[in-house]
Amino acid sequence: MTEKHLVLISTxxxxxxxxxxxxxxxxxxxxxxxxxxAVYTMLKRLEADGLVRSTYRGDPEQRRGGARRxxxxxxxxxxxxxxxxxxxxxxSMGGAHAQ
Length: 99
Prior knowledge:
By secondary structure, this protein is of the alpha+beta class. It is about 55% helix and about 20% strand. It contains four helices and three strands. A three-stranded antiparallel β-sheet has the order 1-3-2. A hairpin with a 5-residue loop joins strand 2 and strand 3.
């Protein structure tokens, strides 16, 4: 999983978000930029890998061509992958300081 994927799924920890909300939150909390087109591709891949799930909610919106909003959430597998990645980074940083 790339750094961008980690930053993106970290925005879904304990909170469902739309793709655009997740993208904005990721960019607000990091120096990583995720393009509007890329965020959908990334979330589709993460969903195929079982790390996130999506659901459609709300009434169809006229301005969205009648489409409902799609919300993404971290799965249990995604939460474990995120936790493992952060623990791995923490261990490697701790090891670097110990030298």
